[in-house]
Amino acid sequence: MGCSPLLALAFALAATPPLPATSTARGGRVVQQGPTFSVGHPPPAAQSLADIDVLPDGRGLPPGRGTAAEGKTVYASRCASCHGATGREGPNDVLAGGQGTLASARPVRTVGSYWPYATSLWDYINRAMPFAQPRSLTADQVYAVTAYILHLNGIIGEADVLSAETLPRVRMPNRDGFIPDGRPHENLPRR
Ligand code: HEC
Question: How many angstroms separate the alpha carbon of residue 92 from the centre of ligand 1?
Fold first, then answer.
């Protein structure tokens, strides 16, 4: 006695071997899950290269160093056209000044007046600036231009050396201007 056609189909489906990552499934649909995304495995090297997060405590900062004096040259050639000679003129975002204005009728939000962590400045420049050529600066250039912007804001001296060790120790003026969000759904533990 042979099995019913429906049961035979069920066996056939169960016996189908897993599809390789790049193959297309029946009907020409691309397989969305599986080895392609390495779910449950360490990320392949190509994905690790995209992991450039720098955390407030400095985790993720690469080796390197720079001072404001060195960053002045980088700033003049790569940033000043959009952010102004002293970081205050625009035409794009104002990067310096504004300290003490946040509670006023005309708050001026800049790196110096608003940003809570100096490490975020390194991360942002490294991943996003110059606007038209992101990721084109070396680590030393990012340290140097970060130092220059902090210096323009009166936060560090011209000769202070920024590195993975010293940058997280820079205390930003508005560090305590942020409060934890008390709403329950915002307080879920970070993974
Ligand atoms: C072609 C114009 C251009 C150049 C050149 C440029 N930027 Fe920017 N920058 C922008 C624009 C536009 C924004 C706003 C981006 C946004 O809000 O998404 C910005 C935002 C920023 C911010 C965030 C300001 C804030 O308070 O939110 C920083 C910091 C910054 N740039 C630093 C730099 C540095 C350092 C350089 C040089 C290495 C640089 N930029 C070069 C156009 C430029």
Answer: 7
